[in-house]
Structure formats: structure tokens, C-alpha cells
UniProtKB/TrEMBL annotation:
Main location class: membrane
Transmembrane intervals: 7-32, 38-59, 71-89, 95-116, 137-157, 163-186, 217-239, 251-271, 278-297, 303-321, 341-360, 366-384
Lineage top rank: taxon: Bacteria
Boundaries of every Major facilitator superfamily (MFS) profile domain copy: 5-392
InterPro entries: MFS, MFS_dom, MFS_trans_sf
Cell membrane recorded as keyword: yes
Entry protein name: MFS transporter
Natural source organism: Alkalicoccobacillus gibsonii
Keyword annotations from UniProtKB, A to Z: Cell membrane, Membrane, Transmembrane, Transmembrane helix, Transport
Compartmental location: Cell membrane
SUPFAM superfamilies named in the record: MFS general substrate transporter (SSF103473)
Length: 404
């Protein structure tokens, strides 16, 4: 393994993920300090969610038209500058809630561009046989940053104040940019900047639509995320309303699921080939659907913790497998657009599912909702397995290698 790239890339990943998770805690804290309004806090969440859906395909197009390394550097530079702009506006007594919405939208847009490009550049930094290991470690860092970033944000807000925290987070992007500058590209591709952005996006969408496995896989992600998004968004309500758990027990439920996710990620390195990767995706989503179904029958906090662990660990494993599979079979010059479109489609179902299930649970017992969505996921996974037969898998991989 290229030790220089390995050290630099994961230093960037750790620092970026920790900074991002601390920012996610700090920005609603600041909104509440300024407004004491739940509506304002919710509006900021909405403003920061939009780029994850709509900017992702644009970011993918840019990643296929220009240097991915430079795109990462520009995205990180923009994010760091915008974060620093918050304490600067406060210092001059110019900070208004409208400015925060705009800054939040721009930071989220640059973050979406960074995340899509970061996922796309991995095959250029590491050998193909190391992709699973790299993606597994990336997911471990991402999962860990939620815990450690939240703890660090709380300590720093209490210790130095929220505006000083934004200053620290902004400065943290400087070593990120420096490390990105030092990365070495092991593999290169020739960006095609002759086509218009719309033509490039259509080319990526056409590839995704005509590829039998990727098209079915993307549809699978959308359906499964409806069930997963519903469970995640309504878990606290379900825990308290149906089972009556305490706050301590709820913490154990999340902690147990987190431990299961780590164990699941560690198991992924037994997968060696593209064919095994695809088969493993089917297995883990099948298990996850079973977990959703079992959740509908949980009766206390411990049984719920087991069910949520069965549901959530395979989802994290699927994320790693899915990313690796795309990196292995999608031609380098199309990978950014495919990643962006898959991210857009996958994320689109999450807020929609939470919104509709919240209303539906007013008239239908939530256990029945979880049971129905789990069965829907199960049927979708089985149908995908029928489509992804051995002949199609092998021909898809062969065609992708020829076009790379």
C-alpha cells in the first residue's frame, strides 16, 4: 500500500469527519441561541439537507470533468472560509439569521461536493485490491466521528463558547488542504471537458440506467432507504410510545447498535471479488430487512437493541460494499456522475419516508408500519437477487473492465 497516500488520506478523512460532526452540533446550537425557535432550527436542517440531494449529481459531473484532487482542495477551502466567516460576522456585530441560512446552505453544498469527490477519487489513490479495506476504514472513521465529534463539540462549546468553536473548525481546514496538496495520484484518467455539463450529466444517467446491475441496485437502495429512514426517524417515538424505554435504556439501544456496526465493518475484509461483493450486498440487506420485521415484535429495550443491531449493522456493511462495487466496475471517467446520482436517489427517500410515516403513524399502529416496510424491503431484495443472476453479473463486470 502507498503509505504516504494512506497516511495523508486518512488524516484528511479523520479531521474532516470530526470537524463536520462538530459543525452539525454547533450550528443548531447557535441558531437556538439567536432565536430560541424550533422552527428556525428545523429550517436550518432543511436548508442544509437540500444540497445533499440536489448538489450531489452536479458534484459528480464536476468530478468527471476536472481534476478530482483540485476539486477536493477547492471544496475544503470554501468550507473552511465560510465557517470562519461566522465568528467574523459576529465580531463585527453583523451576524443575522438570514446570513446563517445562506452560509449553512453554501457550506452544505461544498460539503456535498467534497463527499462525492472523496468517494470518487479513492480508486486513483489506492490499488484495486485494497479498495474494500480502504472503504471499510473510511466507514469506521465516519461511524466513530459521530460519537467523538458530538462529545468534543459539547466540551468545546461549554469550555470556549460556540463562536470560538467555529473559529477552531475553520482553522482545522488548513491542514486538510495542505494534506490534500501532498496526495499522489497512482492512477489517472482523462477528464472530458468538451461536453457541456448537461451532456455530461445525461451521459452518467444513461450509463446508470442502461447498466442492468447498477440500475437495479439504485432502485433497491431507494426502496430499502424508505424502510430504513422510517425506522430511524421514528425510533425514539416507537421506543417511548410503544415500549416505554427510559433515556438510559435508549442510550444503550444506540450504543449496542454502534458496537454491532463496528463488528460488521470488521467482517467485510473477507470479501475479495466483485462477484462476492454483490452477493454479500444481497445477504446483508436481507438480514437488515429481517431486523426491521423483528423490530415490530420487540417488547423491551433489550429486545429492541438486538433488533436495531440486526437492522443497522448490515446497512453500514452495505454502504461499504456498495461503494466498493461501484469503484470496481464503473469506468473512471464516469464514476463521479454515477456516485452523485446514486447519492441523490438514495438520500431523496430518507426525508420523504420520515415525513410520511410521521403522519401515517397517527392513524396506523407503528408496529404494522415497520412490519409492512420490512416485508417490502425483503421482497425488493429477493427480486434484486433474481435480476442479478450470475450471467448478468459477469457480463456487467466484463463490459465495465473493457470500457475503463
Amino acid at each position: 500500500m502507498n503509505n504516504k497516500n494512506y497516511i495523508l488520506y486518512f488524516f484528511v478523512t479523520i479531521l474532516f469527519k470530526l470537524s463536520d460532526k462538530m459543525y452539525v452540533i454547533a450550528i443548531p446550537w447557535l441558531i437556538y441561541e439567536l432565536t430560541q425557535s424550533s422552527v428556525s432550527t428545523g429550517l436550518m436542517f432543511f436548508v442544509q439537507t437540500l444540497p445533499l440531494i440536489f448538489i450531489a449529481p452536479v458534484a459528480g459531473t464536476l468530478a468527471d470533468r476536472f481534476s478530482r484532487k483540485k476539486l477536493l482542495i477547492y471544496s475544503a477551502s470554501v468550507q473552511g472560509s465560510l465557517v470562519l466567516f461566522i465568528p467574523l460576522l459576529h465580531q463585527f456585530d453583523l451576524l443575522q439569521i438570514g446570513f446563517l441560512y445562506l452560509i449553512g446552505f453554501l457550506i452544505a453544498s461544498a460539503g456535498a461536493c467534497f463527499n462525492v469527490t472523496n468517494s470518487t477519487i479513492i480508486p486513483q489513490l489506492f490499488k484495486k485490491e485494497l479498495l474494500m479495506r480502504v472503504n471499510s476504514l473510511f466507514q469506521i472513521i465516519d461511524t466513530s466521528s459521530v460519537l467523538f465529534g458530538s462529545i468534543a463539540a459539547g466540551i468545546l462549546i461549554s469550555g470556549i463558547g460556540v463562536y470560538s468553536l467555529f473559529f477552531v473548525l475553520g482553522i482545522a481546514y488548513l491542514p486538510i488542504v495542505i494534506s490534500l496538496l501532498l496526495l499522489s495520484m497512482l492512477h489517472s484518467f482523462s477528464p472530458n471537458s468538451k461536453k457541456t455539463s448537461w451532456q455530461s450529466l445525461k451521459e452518467g444517467a444513461s450509463y446508470l440506467w442502461t447498466h442492468p446491475i447498477l440500475r437495479s441496485l439504485t432502485w433497491l437502495i431507494f426502496i430499502v432507504n424508505i424502510a430504513n429512514g422510517s425506522l430511524v426517524s421514528m425510533l425514539v417515538f416507537y421506543s417511548r410510545d410503544e415500549i416505554g424505554v427510559t433515556s438510559t435504556e435508549l442510550g444503550w439501544i444506540y450504543a449496542g447498535a454502534g458496537i454491532a456496526q463496528f463488528v460488521g465493518i470488521l467482517l467485510l475484509n473477507v470479501v475479495k471479488s466483485s462477484r462476492n461483493t454483490l452477493n454479500a450486498m444481497v445477504v446483508v440487506l436481507f438480514v437488515s430487512a429481517i431486523g426491521i420485521i423483528l423490530t415490530a415484535f420487540s417488547w423491551n429495550w433489550f429486545s429492541l437493541m438486538i433488533c436495531i443491531s440486526i437492522q443497522s449493522a448490515p446497512v453500514i456493511m452495505f454502504n461499504v460494499l456498495n461503494k466498493t462495487f461501484r469503484q470496481q466496475i464503473v469506468p473512471a471517467h464516469l464514476l463521479g456522475r454515477v456516485n452523485g446520482l446514486v447519492m441523490m436517489i438514495g438520500l431523496a427517500s430518507l426525508p420523504l419516508s420520515g415525513f410520511f410515516v410521521g403522519f401515517l403513524s397517527e392513524v396506523v399502529n407503528i408496529r404494522w408500519i415497520f412490519l409492512s416496510l420490512g416485508i417490502l424491503s425483503l421482497i425488493t431484495v429477493i427480486q434484486f437477487r433474481r435480476i442479478g443472476n450470475k450471467r448478468k453479473i459477469n457480463s456487467s463486470i466484463s463490459e465495465s473492465k473493457l470500457s475503463s
